[in-house]
Amino acid sequence: MTHPPTETFMQVYRIPKATGIDSLTLTGTHIPQPERGQVLVHLHAASLNYRDLMIIEGRAARGAPAENLVPLSDGAGLVVSVGPEVSRFKPGDRVAGCFMQTWTGGPIGPEDGASALGGALDGVLAEYRLFDQAGLVLLPDHLSYEQGATLPCAAVTAWNALFGGQALYPGDPVLVLGTGGVSVFALQFAVAAGFVVIATSSSDDKLDVMRRLGAAHTVNYRRHPEWQEEVLRLTEGQGVARVVEVGGPGTLARSIQAARLGGEIGMIGALTTGGDINPTAAMRKGLILRGIYVGSRQMFEAMNRAISAHRLEPVIDKVFKFEEAGDAYRHLKSQAHLGKVVIRITE
Ligand SMILES: NC(=O)c1ccc[n+]([C@@H]2O[C@H](COP(=O)([O-])OP(=O)(O)OC[C@H]3O[C@@H](n4cnc5c(N)ncnc54)[C@H](OP(=O)(O)O)[C@@H]3O)[C@@H](O)[C@H]2O)c1
Question: Under 8 Å CB-to-CB from 185, ≥6 apart: which residues?
């Protein structure tokens, strides 16, 4: 049985000024009431993405965030009350917020980027949050709130990179770089779809885990700085059909070399700097370089159907308590994690 909250006050984290992880500040405020078309969600868990580090350190692509931003895009929780004219959800539903609140389907629209949670708009590191009904999806039944909170950014991005572009077929080789949130989801979806995954990492221990999760081949990019040559060797000189490219400037030239003729590179991340990109290499291979900005609600819903059908479980590296949110950021920054870093908001 679900009731509207009996308390009237809630706790929420804000970033008064984005000067680093220590700027994260726990404050109190009134629990808002849903108006027309709105849904009040009691958030149970949130997860971090590399983007959240960039935002709190004031180095996000959009520049410094608005003062007093509520951080984090990815949260899951329970619908506790709904406003008038809400038809998509009811109290008792278990939901997650969409990364971009207004991108429901089709190509991204000009205003959708301005509806990203924890960036342009306040995010989910709070006990309660109001959402427009269009900006939520139902969680797969078999997932906990902590698992559900890993999905909105990293998983949808990985889904879009694999299934939003040109078609891949079972047996196609796919390359995932590193073992962060996006790449581990990409591995899981690719394995479920029957693709042959090559995974890279700086750590042999992490590569062991990736093999247990279904990677067919692994390459330590520290031991093999020219890792693209290993990828070519593993694909009998052909290269991969898809690169889930989270490295950016410092890895893209090697990803282009690792791709097969007519292959596609999902341009996702910017974990690295430097690098010198020669467009001719991509041109002569007839590659598609496809820019990816998370994904739409329709993609999120399609992904959830696959997660339910395959009973996929997100890989959670560590769960932090609400009052340890700063430590969760520091853990993500250390890059000691594999998969997702989660904050439990409500016990
Ligand atoms: N465009 C979009 O819509 C979108 C959406 C989500 C994320 N992103 C971007 O994608 C990137 C990954 O995000 P995330 O949240 O998954 O990050 P994350 O969880 O923080 O991943 C960090 C991991 O990346 C790996 N890594 C670091 N440098 C690398 C390198 N030179 N080569 C290969 N792997 C490297 C490391 O794996 P090992 O420890 O195994 O070496 C590291 O642990 C970020 O740049 C993020 O901003 C973009």
Answer: 150, 154, 155, 157, 158, 159, 314
Return the structure tokens found at 192: 């479920």
Q: What is the pLDDT of residues 289-309, one digit of tens each?
A: 999 999 999 999 999 999 999
pLDDT 10s digits, 76-115: 999 999 999 999 999 999 999 999 999 999 999 999 999 9
What's the whole-model pTM score?
0.97
Tokens 């993500």: give the residue.
332
Q: How many CB atoms lie within 10 A of CB 125?
A: 30
H-helix or E-strand containing 39?
strand 38-48
- Gap from CA of 157 to ligand 1 centroid (Å): 12
CA-closest residue to ligand 1 atom 26: 178
Q: Is 248 left (phi over 0), alpha (psi -120 to 50) or beta?
A: left
What residue ranges define each of the domains in the chain, with the CATH number in brackets?
A: 9-150+314-344 (3.90.180.10), 156-291 (3.40.50.720)
Q: Pick from 150, 182, 188 the residue to mutate for probing ligand 1's pocket: most ligand atoms within 8 Å of its CB.
A: 182
Q: For 191, which DSSP code?
A: H
- From 21, 48, 49, 213, the mutation candidate for ligand 1 (largest count of ligand atoms within 8 A of CB) is 49
42 exposure class (CB count in 10 Å sphere: 0-12, 13-18, 19+)? buried
Contact 77/66 with Cβ under 8 angstroms? no
